[in-house]
Amino acid sequence: MTDMTAPAAPSGTEAGTPPGRPGEWSLDALADAYAYPEGDGVWLRANMVSSLDGAGQHDGRSQPLSSDTDMRIFGTLRGLADVVVVGAETVRLEGYRPARAREAFAARRAAAGQGPAPVIAVVSASLDLDFSQPLFTEPLVPTLILTGAAAPADRVRAAREAGAEVLVAGDGAGVEPARALAALAERGHRRLLTEGGPRLLGQFVAAGVLDELCLTVSPTMTAGNAQRIAGGPPVAVPARFSVVSVLEEDGFLFTRYRRV
Q1: Global pTM?
Q2: How far, in Å, are 69, 96, 135, 157, 169 from residue 163 at the CA level?
Q3: Residue 174 CB-half CA count within 13 A
Q4: In sequence order, which ranges of the chain are alpha helices (DSSP H)?
Q5: According to CATH, what is the number of the domain 42-259?
Q6: CB 17, CB 33: distance < 8 Å
Q7: Are 256 and 238 in contact (CB under 8 A)?
Q8: Domain map of the chain by residue range?
Q9: In the chain, which stretches have pLDDT less than 70?
Q10: 3-state class of 8 per DSSP?
């Protein structure tokens, strides 16, 4: 893996990265490179992948744009997070399952006071979800659902009967991003990771609560009319982010940006 934000170093150490290619990095090395900032504040990080022509998915899924190393980083980001926040449509399209405990991150998570695996928090206004799926029936820790006060009462009841914890984070049918983050923080969850989809990420951007974007630029082109990584109404003034690192392997760029 080459760090393009600093002068090249034969070993990689002077550039602030471990030596070798990204697929050769240990999970410990990846975890150090992608560690959350120190402090007690809430930090919301997004992890997304995009083709060269701006598609955030192909045939409704992100996997065709991904790579083995991208999936290693995906797993590392999950291994560091308290909660994975995801939209209901992405849960349906990507076939979300509960996050699993991984031995490689066990000691690190225990030292940080985290549970064995991150909580999955699903954002949904309608709660149009299949509560017989493993995400709700087999999680290591109960799945959370973030919704609004006007959510259908029968669906809220069904979610709770399935074992999910329902958190109200909006006065209407939908979720207010800042209130969603506050509700998670009240439960001690400050290291937050969102994996989209585009509509949810767009809401976080519009609300000004996204702190960091980890974006994999895939060396692919899809054409078609696939969504970008963020959707919804445009912001009045483009949100500005600064580059933290740009890493490359086999044509894939693994980038990190933080909000200015």
Answers
A1: 0.90
A2: 34, 16, 10, 10, 19
A3: 7
A4: 27-33, 68-80, 88-94, 103-111, 134-137, 153-161, 177-186, 198-207
A5: 3.40.430.10
A6: yes
A7: no
A8: 42-259
A9: 1-20, 22
A10: coil
